[in-house]
C-alpha cells in the first residue's frame, strides 16, 4: 500500500499537521503488514470523503473532545447557507493557480437549500436498489459512480460489466439526469459561496456513493474514520462536497463529519438532503466519526480548477 506523501504543507500549524500525518502513516503500515495485501488505498481514502493521511488512531474514539457543533440534524439551514471562514493553507501554492477558481478564501459551508429531501431520497433509492444487494460484505462499502467500481469485501467489482446489458434494468436515464442536476446546483452553490466562476470549475474523480455502518473493521480497507486532507491525497482537489442521504440520530448514530482544527473539533450532523462543502486544503483536516448504529449513506462530489483533471458526469455505458 502506498504511504501518503507530504506535499510541503505550509502554514502556522504545518508542524502539527505533518506530525499527525507521519504518525498515521506509521500506524497504517504496521496494520498493513499484519494483514493481507490488496487494493486498500481507494476505500481508505474515499470513505473519509476523499482523502489520505492518518492521525493517532485513538483520536477516533475521543469524540467527547468535540467542542462545537456547527449544524445539528434538527436544524433547517435554508434558504441562506451557513458559512464558516478559515484562513487558506499554503497547499495551493504547490500547484498551478487558475484565476477565478483557485481558492482565494477558504472555509466550510452547510446548506439544506440546494437539494430537496425528496431528491436525496430518490438518489438513495436508485443507488441502493441493486447495489445494496451487491454490498454483500457487511463492512463499509463504496461505489465509484464514474468508473462503476463497487467494493465487495476485499475486492472491487465493476457493476457496469457485472450487469452488462442489464444495467439499464438497474439504473434509468432519469437517475443520471437527477445526478447531473444535483451536481450542477452544488457546483453553483460552491461558486457563489467562494466567489468563483462556475464555468472554471470541473468535476473530478473520484465521485462516489458510500455506505458505512457499525460493523467492526476486518481489514484496513474498512477503517474509514482516519483523519485526512483531501488535497494531500488528491492534488487535483480544490473543493469537496458531500450530499447526505440519511439522518443522524434516526437512521444511524455516530457518523458525524468532524473538522479537526488546531484548537478544537467541530462537527456537522448529517441530514437527508443536506449539502456540506469546503475548500480541500489542510485548512480543513477532517474525519468521519465511527458509526455506532444503523447505516450512513452519502454521495461525495469533488471539483478541480485544473481542466486536465476534469471528468464528465457519470452516464450509462
UniProtKB/TrEMBL annotation:
Domain Fe2OG dioxygenase: where?
Answer: 207-306
Q: What GO molecular function annotations does the UniProt record carry, in alphabetical order?
A: dioxygenase activity; iron ion binding; L-ascorbic acid binding; oxidoreductase activity, acting on paired donors, with incorporation or reduction of molecular oxygen
Under the heading Gene3D superfamilies, the entry gives: q2cbj1_9rhob like domain
Taxonomic superkingdom = Eukaryota
Name of one Pfam family that matches: 2OG-FeII_Oxy_3
Q: Which cofactor does it need?
A: L-ascorbate
Keywords in alphabetical order: Dioxygenase, Iron, Membrane, Metal-binding, Oxidoreductase, Transmembrane, Transmembrane helix
TM helices/strands, residue ranges = 38-59
Keyword Metal-binding in record: yes
Q: Which GO cellular component terms are attached?
A: membrane
Among PANTHER family, the record links this protein to: 2-OXOGLUTARATE AND IRON-DEPENDENT OXYGENASE DOMAIN-CONTAINING PROTEIN 3, PROLYL HYDROXYLASE-RELATED
Q: What is the name of the protein in this document?
A: 2-oxoglutarate and iron dependent oxygenase domain containing 3
Lineage start: Eukaryota, Metazoa, Chordata, Craniata, Vertebrata
Amino acid at each position: 500500500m502506498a504511504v501518503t506523501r507530504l506535499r510541503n504543507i505550509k502554514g502556522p500549524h504545518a508542524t502539527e499537521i505533518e506530525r499527525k500525518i507521519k504518525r498515521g502513516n506509521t500506524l497504517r503500515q504496521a496494520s498493513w503488514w499484519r494483514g493481507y495485501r490488496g487494493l486498500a488505498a481507494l476505500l481508505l481514502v474515499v470513505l473519509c470523503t476523499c482523502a489520505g493521511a492518518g492521525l493517532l488512531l485513538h483520536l477516533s474514539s475521543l469524540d467527547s473532545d468535540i467542542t462545537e457543533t456547527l449544524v445539528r440534524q434538527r436544524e433547517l439551514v435554508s434558504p441562506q447557507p451557513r458559512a464558516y471562514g478559515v484562513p487558506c493553507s499554503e497547499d495551493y501554492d504547490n500547484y498551478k493557480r487558475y484565476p477565478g477558481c483557485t481558492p482565494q478564501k477558504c472555509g466550510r459551508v452547510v446548506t439544506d437549500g440546494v437539494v430537496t429531501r425528496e431528491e436525496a431520497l430518490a438518489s438513495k433509492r436508485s443507488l441502493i436498489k441493486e447495489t445494496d444487494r451487491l454490498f454483500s460484505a457487511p463492512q463499509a462499502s463504496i461505489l465509484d459512480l464514474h468508473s462503476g467500481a463497487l467494493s465487495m469485501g476485499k475486492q472491487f467489482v465493476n457493476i457496469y460489466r457485472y450487469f452488462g446489458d442489464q444495467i439499464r434494468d438497474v439504473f434509468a436515464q432519469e437517475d443520471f439526469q437527477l445526478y447531473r442536476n444535483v451536481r450542477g446546483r452544488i457546483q453553483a452553490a460552491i461558486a457563489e459561496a467562494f466567489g468563483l466562476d462556475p464555468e472554471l470549475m470541473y468535476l473530478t474523480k473520484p465521485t462516489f456513493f458510500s455506505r458505512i455502518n457499525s460493523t467492526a473493521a476486518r481489514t484496513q480497507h474498512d477503517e474509514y474514520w482516519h483523519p485526512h486532507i483531501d488535497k494531500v491525497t488528491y492534488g487535483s482537489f480544490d473543493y469537496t462536497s458531500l450530499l447526505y442521504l440519511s439522518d443522524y440520530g434516526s437512521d444511524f448514530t455516530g457518523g458525524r463529519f468532524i473538522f479537526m482544527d488546531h484548537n478544537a473539533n467541530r462537527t456537522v450532523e448529517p441530514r437527508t438532503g443536506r449539502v456540506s462543502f469546503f475548500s480541500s486544503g489542510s485548512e480543513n483536516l477532517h474525519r468521519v466519526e465511527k458509526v455506532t448504529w444503523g447505516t450512513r449513506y452519502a454521495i461525495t462530489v469533488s471539483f478541480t480548477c485544473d481542466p486536465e483533471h476534469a471528468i464528465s458526469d457519470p452516464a450509462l455505458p
